[in-house]
Amino acid sequence: MRVLAPSRSRFLPSAILIVSCLILAGCSTPNPRLSQVDPGIAQVLELWKPHLLYLLPSPHSRLYVEVDAVEGCVPNQAALQKLRDFLSKYCNKPDGIEIVRSDVIPIETARGISEKALARKYVNGPAKTTGSPPAFMYVLFYNDALCKASVKAEHSRASAAQSSRRAAKPYAEVLPYPAIYFNTRYFPWFPWRFCGMDKKGLLHEAGHMLGLVTRSTSAPGRHCPDRACLMNADIHLRRVLLGQQKELCLQCAAELAQSFTQPSPSNLRFVDSVVVRSEAGYNVLSLPDRLCVIVGDFAERDCQDFGAHIRAETPDANQRLRVDYLANDEVLKEPVKLSEIINRLKDDPFDLVRRGGPRVFLRACADRYGALGQYTNAVDMLHRAILLDSSDDSSYNQLAWIRATCSDASVRNGKEAVAAASKACELTEWKDWEFIDTLAAACAKPAISNAPSNSKNKHCARAIQPSQNRRRCESDCRSMKCRSLFAINRTSLEGAIAARGSTGKARTEAFASTRVVCFLASLNRLLVAVR
Ligand SMILES: [Zn+2]
Ligand SMILES: [Zn+2]
Fold this sequence. Notes:
Layout: H1 14-25, H2 39-48, H3 52-55, E1 63-70, H4 77-90, E2 97-105, H5 107-110, H6 115-122, E3 135-142, H7 144-147, H8 157-165, E4 171-173, E5 179-183, H9 189-193, H10 197-209, H11 237-241, H12 250-259, E6 268-271, E7 274-279, E8 282-287, E9 290-295, H13 300-311, E10 322-327, H14 329-332, H15 335-345, H16 351-371, H17 375-388, H18 393-405, H19 414-427, H20 433-444, H21 454-461, H22 467-480, H23 483-501, H24 504-530
Parallel strand pairs: 1-2, 1-3, 3-5, 9-10
Antiparallel strand pairs: 4-5, 6-7, 7-8, 8-9
One zinc ion (ZN) is lined by residues 224, 226, 229, 231, 248-249, 251-252.
């Protein structure tokens, strides 16, 4: 829903033409472009209807709007007053609408950080009060020139120069998390902000947050075809100067009125800043570009933990949208129920949850079973994940690790460990050192059969990690007197390091030597067995 394109008109009245020519001379606004909405997203919105949380008096009788801004992008009071008036006019919130200025993010802190990462770091949620929990709307005012500094190394000089000229359009995002990202650089002070175009832009995005425009036949691209309407794809300077595009047209207002005939969402609500969608047997928690699927019992405390976990992320890492899965211990005790939930995950309306869901969830279950010491169940989960997707390298790797290093001797299976680890390496074309690390551990397993604990063994196999981890590993190895293991791992893993950092023939040779070491480790295992 990247939207809003202030544009120039070809047919300006002469009095304005002179002004506009002067204006356009210093303007770098990109050409208007209608946004296209993914049909999959449109379908989810139809089922999900998050905008009803803002419009209807239930389940939230009040609305709390948090406004964060990067230093230098702070909106003026008039803009926020316009937003309040707009929301008050169209949202039925009997207990009121509160717009609160929150963080002013220092420029140096924001430099190189994407707007989504800033949102994840700075979204605070509504202030704690004794009243009913409110619906929550997040608005971030930022400057994309600061954000783009982070990607300068990834762009060619030409594209970097191009991106520095073009400002990103403000946009409202509804999925996976409703928020307005308002790039103030798109509205330089003169002429756009001077003419109040930025305020119209903010209201336009707020209109999207309220669900506009969904009239499928007459409103393509979620925008209103009426050029005098605030929800038209283009906001024209001429029309704004003529007093148009200040309001919603009659059809858009009627569309909002139509929303009030719909029932309140029964499975959707805000818990603090987190959107929670409850499905049978599981809940989907959302924050900007982060989803967490919690299977089994759910408590509001889970939202606070999820929020704290996301805020603790390093802001400039993990830019991609991510879905995490957590398995509640209670549901793990009921295999039949667990299977039903996995089947339901396959039909979730949101394709991000649906696509990787069951497979990733099975891995999460395996993790949890492992932590509980139920290794047989963990192995069973991983077998099921591999059955679902035979190209799932992570499941092969996880299976290999358990089979190679499990503290329960009845679960260890050297043959399967090596086979699964090899498969993981093949699926990733021997490019993932962690998987090669697992293979090394699988091959070296007999050498550590007398080692005291599973966790210590893990340190040995993770010896590839430089500096601190390596020193820790060496120390552990000395204390466990398993130098032979460390020697095997170090040699094979250093081969992996060399392969990772090299190209062409050197890379091939490095990988070959890694495989030879793994093979020698296998021989070592055999000799140990013969002895
Ligand atoms: Zn729009
Ligand atoms: Zn309209």
